[in-house]
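User: quick one, fold this
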Amino acid sequence: KKREGSVVVCEEDEESCDVEVPCNLVYAVMNAMATFPTENSDKVYEALSNALVRRCLFITGAIDMKGCPKADRGEAAFIGRSNVGKSSLVNMLTNRKSLAYTSKRPGKTQQFNYFAVNDKPNLEKELKYGDDVPGQPDLDSFYIVDLPGFGFAQVPQQQRQQWSEFMTEYLETRKTLRVVFHLVDARHGPIDDDLRIMKQVGESLPKNAKYVVVLTKADKNVKNTQKQQGRVARDVMEKLRDAMRRNKVGNAPVILTSAQTKLGRDDMWRYLRLAAEN
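Assistant:
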């Protein structure tokens, strides 16, 4: 099914112009670009990201299932230990500088933060002032859900337990959940908190939702001249694959990313598409 979108082409010596492009065509372009990676540029990727994310807005923060918005569109959840780079990655994927709050203090995300992608225009007026704004969400509207970080978060044990119970219920009962991105630091590989997440996902996630492991901060492992490519140490990858097998998620895809260099943006969108085309 075709999705409406627009690509904004910006050139220094020309005026900006809008070109209407179906979103399924944008996905096809991304697939073709993966075949010829050396021909790509950040400007092209930025145009494609703008076509897929026309609008993006924080909707609500939920501390239990009752606080979640109506399950009327696909959802993509981001989970990982504190300080793994979830908020930075969400900002990179949506081509926004400060959509999801980033902090140097680990554990800043204290709730399930819902961001609506491609909802109806001027929705912020409705949320902020209570205005009755006409219109409908775009056909490819979906939610990005930023879950609280586990591990370093400076919160009481009781609250961490509540988060864990909330996540279990969310994974098991949220019928519109289409993909779970589990973020793991590419420099260190999975730690105990990551193993618990894998176990929880292996036991709770329905078959209609995809589980994807995302290795973050891959640019930190290489010298400046190679940062655009990124890498992960062999022992870290072996440790990751072993942990995935032991927790019954061994067939899950693994994506190498960097919010700094935007590595892996196109690979991530191949799975975000599952939520957008729900």
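User: anything notable?
Assistant: The longest helix spans residues 157-173.
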